[in-house]
Write a structure and sequence with these properties.
There is one protein chain. The protein has nine helices and two strands, in the order E-H-H-H-H-H-H-H-H-H-E. The protein is mainly α and 166 residues long. Its EC number is 4.1.1.97. Pathway: Purine metabolism; urate degradation; (S)-allantoin from urate: step 3/3.
């Protein structure tokens, strides 16, 4: 059940972190630090203040945030939101050939960049995801890290839409 903005603004830091700690995949410190910027005027305001926390992260912290995300189509343990998001894009229903292609792309991407390919899969389908995956393999490491952070910001926005009721 979504949290009301008024309730979020009244929560202590531990409650707030428990409520929104998974907005950024396995990185509850974003919510923990954003709590200090209360009160939030709206969901968009909360999102912007969470993104400000990410912007202030060190390079190492940003890489840890990126690396906290699962490979697409992975059977590895991941946040419930990731499971739902990937299923919504059809990544839980890949043919054997599609799964093998995705596995090869994941390996090539990790080998080149040192972190998983991240794309906001909501409102995507497996065909567009695979095409984007192949295109982004041609990018520079710097461009891909910036793109990964931009995708994470979009994912967080989608997750806040589900978690927070204005």
């Amino acid at each position: 059940m979504p949290h009301k903005m008024t309730a979020l603004n009244q929560m202590n830091q531990a409650e707030f972190t428990a409520a929104l700690g998974e907005i950024f995949e396995q990185t509850p410190q974003v919510a923990q630090q954003a709590w200090q910027s209360r009160p939030f005027a709206s969901r968009a305001d909360l999102h912007q203040k969470m993104l400000a926390v990410v912007a202030q992260m060190s390079q190492g912290e940003k890489l840890a945030l990126i690396r906290a995300h699962p490979d697409l189509g992975s059977k590895a343990k991941m946040a419930a939101a990731s499971v739902q998001e990937q299923a919504g894009a059809g990544l839980n229903q890949l043919s054997a050939d599609e799964f093998e292609r995705l596995h090869r792309l994941n390996q090539a991407y990790r080998s080149k960049f040192g972190f998983p390919f991240i794309i906001a899969v909501k409102q995507q389908n497996k065909i567009r995801i695979l095409a984007t995956f192949e295109q982004r393999l041609t990018n520079s490491p710097e461009a891909e890290q910036a793109q990964a952070i931009a995708e994470i910001a979009q994912i967080a926005g989608f997750r806040l839409e589900t978690a927070v009721d204005e």
